[in-house]
Write a structure and sequence with these properties.
Order of helices and strands: EHEEEEH
CATH superfamily: Hotdog Thioesterase
Bound molecules: coenzyme A
Structural class: alpha+beta
Number of helices: 2
CATH topology: Thiol Ester Dehydrase, Chain A
Largest sheet: 5 strands, antiparallel
Mean pLDDT: 97
Number of strands: 5
CATH class: Alpha Beta
Distance between the termini: 42 Å
Shape: globular
């Protein structure tokens, strides 16, 4: 996904709002998920997000999204964001986000319809393996939150 950063996207210092980048990340992840499972999805979570370089007014922002792993109901999507100086073409990696999206059935409940990932390259296999490791930590966090909610 590619966008030009315009004044309404930026703060008074000419840096893009973090929320605007998150919106584009969410949209790119949704497109990758929809293309993978061709059914309605929602974003369940976004792992931590570090902005390591500013994106400035007039930059071109490019987002690359890929479904890294799928577990029947949910998927992990990785989104890599680059900013590009529109005059020089210089590209800088700005942030990477990992989102979990969940397929929903007609009843609005999670639905076990997500096809498995077909890993074609070593890079695909590396991403799928790393996604499994992140899923363990993510589900621990979700379980801890649910325990706290049950005790409250
Ligand atoms: C996401 C949502 C559908 C999960 O519903 P739920 O009843 O908690 O679902 P379950 O416990 O049955 O889990 C369903 C799947 O979601 C995953 N999941 C649920 N919450 C998750 C979270 N916070 N992070 C990552 N995965 C999550 C589970 O691991 C499971 O996936 P799996 O079967 O592939 O392992 C529900 O919390 C929801 O509708 N949230 C709002 C989503 C939304 O509106 N997003 C837009 C931004 S507001």
């Amino acid at each position: 996904m590619t966008e030009l950063i315009i004044p309404e996207d930026t703060n008074i210092y000419g840096n893009v709002f973090g929320g605007r980048v998150m919106e584009l990340i969410d949209k790119a992840a949704a497109i990758a998920s929809l293309r993978h499972c061709r059914t309605g999805i929602v974003t369940a979570s976004l792992d931590s997000l570090d902005f390591i370089h500013p994106i400035k007014l007039g930059n071109i922002i490019s987002l690359f999204a890929q479904v890294n792993q799928a577990w029947g109901t949910s998927m992990e999507v990785g989104v890599k964001v680059f900013s590009e100086d529109s005059l020089t073409g210089e590209k800088v990696h700005t942030c990477t986000a990992y989102l979990t999206t969940v397929a929903l059935g007609a009843d609005g409940r999670p639905s076990r319809v997500v096809p498995p990932i077909l890993c074609r390259t070593d890079e695909d296999r590396r991403r799928a393996g790393n996604a499994e490791e992140r899923r363990v930590r993510r589900l621990e966090r979700v379980a801890a939150r649910r325990r706290r909610a049950a005790q409250a």
